């Protein structure tokens, strides 16, 4: 396949794996890159810049294809040492960085000087335009259905993607709700140059997480995610479980006076317990509505090949058939 994104990143298919805390380790990033997509190591999952340097080296041993690093700017008081993380990225020879959380503006000069392409994840057109203005190369447009932080505007991708196509001049990828060949075709049709997947990549053989997590995703339906932390303006879409039910009850009780301290036991330190130990009820963890489309645990290679084959079939048969009459039997 050839799109603006395959050409920019030097990859075979326009399929990116978004950064995921305690999931985006070298095993998954290298598997995605080896399958022809762009794998991404999650920077802050590595507790220090030195550990990130090691993780980059480990990934380099597992693939000779391009891969990137996610740098999430967290709303915390004691910020991680971002300049040192960026040094590890630059010295590790990384050529693509996915940024998220806040604007990467202050770090753009050093990233650009190192020849790094920046994908910035945005949940609104306003932020996407700002990202374009400060020199980001690609925008990852995260719709309301996405796993993780969908922002505060609640605009789903059926609207957000064509709006991005109307406003942006740089290429963008569709993020949130992407799972299969249908998603890829829809994303391309709405103006995107590729897709970014989070939740779907967790339910793969190579994702370095406990099997309980993968099984929980296969068992869940599109009705099983919840929105939390809205009152804190740190909205997150998570998989429902007993901790999330508890959290929801606290949120209803506290209303707009909710403080992060009220829900710390449901949200702090959850990821290692869930992803490494398989304690899927330990707290709230990100998951997209797309979980309703996940029914198996293939290898990353099988998944990527399936997406591309399905997309090609939809375009060449179903869509072309709508116009030349040959697709009539396949029209839903
Ligand atoms: C378990 C999980 C952890 C995530 N952690 C991060 C993160 O640390 N940084 C980040 O920028 N995005 C994070 N995301 C968001 C993903 O990169 C991606 O934007 C999102 O999953 C896309 O929506 P989808 O799940 O519908 O594919 C996470 C998503 C999930 C499901």
Mean pLDDT rating: 96
Derived from helix and strand composition plus strand pairing, the structural class reads alpha/beta
Distinct bound molecules: flavin mononucleotide
By CATH, the topology of the largest domain is: TIM Barrel
The coarse silhouette is globular
Order of helices and strands, N to C?
HEHEHEHEHEHEHEHEHHEEHHHH
Task: Describe it.
With 332 residues, the chain is α/β, with parallel strands linked by helices. It folds into 2 domains: 4-204, TIM Barrel (Alpha-Beta Barrel), CATH 3.20.20; 211-289, no CATH class. The protein has 14 helices and 10 strands. It has helices at residues 4-9, 26-34, 49-62, 82-91, 108-113, 125-133, 157-167, 181-189, 199-202, 211-219, 242-254, 264-267, 270-276, 300-324, and strands spanning 15-17, 39-42, 67-72, 96-100, 117-122, 138-142, 172-175, 195-197, 225-228, 236-239. The strands form 2 sheets. An 8-stranded parallel beta sheet has the order 1-8-7-6-5-4-3-2. A two-stranded antiparallel ribbon has the order 9-10. Helix 3 (49-62) links the parallel strand 2 (39-42) and strand 3 (67-72). Helix 2 (26-34) runs parallel beside helix 3 and helix 8 crosses helix 14 (300-324). It is globular, with a radius of gyration of 19 Å. The model has no long low-confidence stretch (mean pLDDT 96).
